[in-house]
Amino acid sequence: MHVTETQIDELTRSFRIAVPAAELERKVEDKLAELARSAKLPGFRPGKVPLALLRRRFGDSVKSEVVEEAINEATQTVIGERGLRTAVPPKVEQAGFAEAGDLEYTLAVEVLPEVTPPDYSQITLERLVAEPDEADLQDRLERLAEALGDETVVEEPRPAAEGDIVVVDIHGPDDRWPFQGTAQGVRLRIGESDGPLPGFLAQLAGRSPGERFDVTVTIGPDAERTDLAGTTRTYDVEIKELRLRTPAPLDDSLAEKGGWENFEELKTWVRQGRESELKSATRLRIKRALLDRLAELYAFPVPKGLVAREYEQLVRQVVAEGAAGGGEPEHVHDEHCGHDVAAEPAEPHVHDEHCGHDHDHDHGQPGPALDATLNDAQRQEYRALAERRVRLGLVLAEIGRTNNLQVTPDELAKAMIAEARRYRGQEQQVLEFLRKQPQAREALAAPILEEKVVDFILEMAQVSERTVSAEELLRDPDAETTSGGATADVSS
Question: What is the model's pTM?
Answer without folding.
Answer: 0.70
